[in-house]
Design goal:
The complex is a heterodimer of chains A (360) and B (221).
Chain A (H helix, E strand, L loop, with lengths): L2 E10 L2 E10 L3 E5 L6 H9 L6 E6 L2 E4 L12 E4 L11 H11 L7 H9 L15 H14 L4 E5 L7 H17 L4 E5 L2 H7 L2 E6 L2 E7 H5 L13 E12 L4 E6 L2 E6 L8 E7 L3 E4 L10 E12 L4 E8 L6 E7 H7 L6 E6 L3 E3 L2
Parallel strand pairs in A: 3-8, 3-9, 6-7, 7-8
Antiparallel strand pairs in A: 1-2, 1-4, 4-5, 9-10, 11-12, 11-14, 12-13, 14-20, 15-19, 16-17, 16-19, 17-18
Chain B lengths: L2 H30 L5 H9 L6 H12 L4 H10 L7 H27 L2 H8 L4 H12 L1 H16 L3 H6 L10 H10 L3 H33 L1
Helix pairs in contact in B: 1-5, 1-8, 5-8, 6-7, 8-11, 10-11
The chains are: A alpha+beta (360), B mainly alpha (221).
Chain lengths: 360, 221
Amino acid sequence: MSNITVRFKGAIGSFPLDVDFTAPARGVTALFGQSGCGKSSVLRCIAGLQHVENGFLQINDIVWQDATNFVPAYGRSVGYVFQEASLFPHMNVHKNLEFGLKRSAVKTNGAKFVDVVDLLGLENLLNRTSQRLSGGERQRVAIGRALLSQPSILLMDEPMAALDQMSKDEIIPYLERLHGHLDIPMIYVSHDMNEVQRLADTMVYLEDGMVRATGPIENVLTDTSLPITHAREASVVVNVSVTSFSREDGLTKLDVGGAELLVPGHVGDVGKNIRIRIAANDVSLALQEPSQTTILNVLPVVVMDVSAINDTQVNVLCGIGGEGGAQILARITKRSQDTFNFSTSQHIFAQVKGVSMVDK
Amino acid sequence: MWEPVWLTMKLAFMTTLVLLIIGTPLAWWLSRSSQWWKEGVAAVVALPLVLPPTVLGFYLLILLSPTSPIGQMLTSVFGHSLPFSFAGLVVGSVIYSMPFVVQPIRNAFDAIGERPFEVAATLRATPLDTFFSVALPLARPGMLTGSVLGFAHTVGEFGVVLMIGGNIPGETKVLSVAIYDHVEALEYGQAHILSFGMLAFSFVVILFMMVSEKRLRRRWS
């Protein structure tokens, strides 16, 4: 299987960077971490905009940097989307889009241009100057421009961080469409967990210029050794498929590795794979299957890990249906833990109060 | 009476052209280089701003005269010695007006910032390509200012011309020298015509520059 191998060790200015990770060369890999953790620097190093002496970078079978070799940015087939759209102010939208297309190493007919314009809904903007675009429109043009250079990898540096909520809501559906259409890998830098949960397949969790964890997003979000699972709003994502929809009470039934979940509304056609998010605070635990409860979703689970996060609260990691099943986090009080004394391998029941859709 | 006017225009045009050709890459280098000694070069370029024109003219006269090594070389290139010739005036004007062209262009390059160049690189534009397709078009307001200032400044030059050009009609007798001559000869009528022409010209130049620069900037912001 093809991979992205990234290794940078050195300093950018006075900021020490020591990252080393491998991610699959398909789907979306999120570089996640707090502001100042070095995630943007890593992305700039991948693009060749920044040079760390001691580095190795390989995308599929192309090596862009090793001990003796450093391919400059203009020699790498990357598409880069900056935080600010950074359109060329002396060109209209059409010219901006063409800039990369003309210089692309891959020669194509006009179809590619039309495809990208369609995908990002740019046809009405083509003759405008970049000053006459909204923030969201600008960023869409910037994404189109990057795609048209026919990169072998798409790099996005917090493309929504500079946008207001309205522009974000406008652009997210396009990003999700991109995720479905794109046949190249994407590396997406973000400090916004919400975005990451919506878009990422793989997650690289950075802290102080170092990789704390890396792997499929479901696994990283349930790694109880990580501070993200200690956050007040900690949540996990679970991939499920739609099994049925009841018109009578308007509930959709989802399959989670054998167990079932009911969610309100028609969330997708039967057979559709979707991603849901379950907040740790929305999960409570019971020793016996509760019979008299308003909570619809009661899942048989097995306890996989119990870890205190502070003096009053505890995270309980549960496998749905068994140890191999999808994992969810339950946030309970220390007092409850003292009362029930949940322990690893114990079979119990999880009550899930809230499930939110994360469209994919 | 119009010969000095024509000669001055020719000189200013040639000087501006030469300055755009050598000043733009120089400004680019001053803007982008990280060499520690580049500010030294920048200071040399800016020197004519503060140096008395007669001092500059005096050194140029010595430097360009056929007895100096550089003058010798230039003499063989041009086929005649440079002082007291039109070519000599162009060389002197280029040096004298250089800061007026280089500084605005450098400022314009500085103002572009790093980002557009990074964008261009990620879109596979080589550095040379980026210079022509991104840097030059974005520096247009500065190049316009530089050209106009360089042109106008050359039109008004006096001290350097007098030192290295002298007062040869049709060859080195430019406007400012002509006005001086007329005043010396108490021909105030002619002096008035030429002087007022210069005044009007200068006003139009400055006005045009301010208006067009403002328009360009507004268009891109």
